[in-house]
Amino acid sequence: MLKEYKKTLNRIYRLLDILILLLSFYAAYYLRFGPIDLKPFNLNVQYAVFFSTFLIAWFYLSSRFELYGSKRLTHFRRECWDVSKTTALCLIIATVPAFLIRHYPLSRFVLLYLWPLQTGLLLLLRFILRETLKYIRRRGYNYRQILIVGRNSRASKIAKKIKESPEYGLRILGFLDATENENGASSFCDVELMGNLHDLESILRSEVVDEVFVTLPIKSHYSKIEQIIYLCEDVGLEVVIPTDLFKLKLAKSNISNYDGIQVINFYTSPEMSWQFVIKRLIDVVGTSVLLALSFPLFVVVGIFIKATSKGPILFKQQRVGYNGRIFSFLKFRTMVENAEALKKDLMALNEMDGPVFKIRNDPRTTKFGRFLRKTSIDELPQLINVLKGDMSLVGPRPPVPDEVNQYVLRDRRRLSMRPGITCLWQVSGRNTIKFEKWMELDRQYIDQWSLWLDIKILANTIPAVFKGSGAA
User: Fold this and answer.
1) CB hemisphere CA count around 54 (13 angstroms)
2) Which of 16, 102, 179, 329 is most buried (most C-beta within 10 Å)?
């Protein structure tokens, strides 16, 4: 199912909830007794016992009632009930030991004020978050594009729910179905029928697909579902399936809830977590600082490019990003203005194997362009791509569409992570490395990804740039 930043949201939710519980407790105490000393736990013994027991109960019951799970597909009234139930039970549990301290009885007015304060503030936090995410998703951001394989009642129910709820952040690309199930209809639930199972590979090559949701019956289509999983595993796409685990080569799995339907997620790219939030934070902060520091260099390079050759300062090219998304890739122009038109006449001079085109002494490169390439200064405008979210500081290099069209299927798995300015390829020799080894390094990066790996790659990139290792 939809990849959520589950661990990150859990930590953020828990931290904010504990803060709300603490503030509401002090607020209820203030309403009953007036100003108090705000030093931690500087309270009468019965209130210290009460609050400590309350927190212990909260940690257990909040997990028991899944207050920190994904709520994208859960109605808010259900969440209201779960939060209200949890706070009420915690209040009852915490009151028992506190009332046993007979010489220091709890104030009933504190308890009377506490429950509505806690519940109201906790629900207000969740309401604000829900509405913020709904606002973002309704405007076409933070959405996932899904392909549904199978046409049956479960598929119909899911499609209807998605279409009626844009706040879920899901879009249906279309349906596929087994050949024996086709009934001649060109659509299903007013969504295009894109073909049968034989068309899956071509669709994954040509369309932007974030998830493949399989609703085919397990018993009658077991081998076909297994083939679908293996195919998506090669590409690096997440598969959602209602039941039954399969023996997998690379993909990992976890179980999630699709509005009451238990599903199993299969994925080969790293699971979204707090590390990805930090990775994006590093991208934004790092590129903002680098862009500010390098602004004078941008101006100087721009002047030299205009003074030494005809054409624009920046070279823009269509590149393939995350899961096949096309974006405008930026570099300082290092070639003559009509370089793309001259490329077809130079194909015989290509020094790279595979679908990649590279010439060490490319005749289209200007004199100043050679300097920019040797020093990797031509790559600096990609910081703008990183800031926009098309790229990351670290990740597989973004290919051009023509290269992707020539990939064998397993090479497309490099598109299952956001492309980057530098990666293992850049710090291992760049253009001196064979294409298959390059693809292997990208798959290695995806399989072994961690924040620490990103930090090591960034650290190794600096000396590689100064040495000009493999630059062409």
Assistant:
1) 23
2) 329
Residue 150 and residue 159 in contact, taking contact as beta carbons nearer than 8 Å: no
Model confidence pLDDT, tens digit, residues 194-232: 988 889 999 999 998 988 999 888 878 888 989 999 999
Going by C-beta distance under 8 Å and a sequence separation of 6 or more, which residues neighbour residue 60?
none
186 forms bridges with which residues in the sheet? none
Copy the structure tokens of residue 141: 């951001």
Q: Give the tens place of pLDDT for each residue, 410-445.
A: 899 999 999 999 998 888 766 677 888 889 999 999
In the listed set 248, 267, 286, which residue is the last one of a domain according to the structure?
Answer: 267
Q: Quick one: 302 and 368 in the same domain?
A: yes
Please indicate, yes or no, whether residues 371 and 463 belong to a single structural domain of this protein. yes
CB 368 within 8 A of CB 306: no
Pairing of strands 211-214, 261-267: unpaired
Asked if 404 and 303 sit in the same domain, the reply is yes
pLDDT tens string 367-399: 998 899 888 899 999 999 999 999 999 999 999
Q: Tell me phi and psi for residue 427, to 5 degrees.
A: -95, 10
Q: Please tell me the total count of domains within the chain.
A: 3
| CA 371/CA 376 separation, integer angstroms | 8
3-state helix, strand, coil in the chain (%, to 5): 55, 15, 30
Q: Which residues pair with 241 in a beta bridge?
A: 264
Section 82-88 average pLDDT? 89
CB atoms within 10 A of CB 390: 21
- Is 420 in the same domain as 314? yes
In which residue are the tokens 């990150």 written?
A: 8
Q: Which helix (H) or strand (E) holds 231?
A: helix 222-235
For residue 164, is it within any domain?
A: yes
Tell me, yes or no, whether 446 and 307 share the same domain.
Answer: yes
Spatial CA neighbour of 145 closest among 172, 177, 163, 175: 172
Domain boundary among 218, 241, 267: 267
295 and 198 in a common domain: no
Residue-number span of the structural domain to which 355 is assigned: 274-467
Name the nearest CA neighbour of 55 among 83, 18, 85, 84. 18
Helical packing angle, 45-64 and 6-33, nearest 10°: 150
Integer Cα distance of 214 and 224 in angstroms: 10
Residues 88 and 21 in one domain: yes
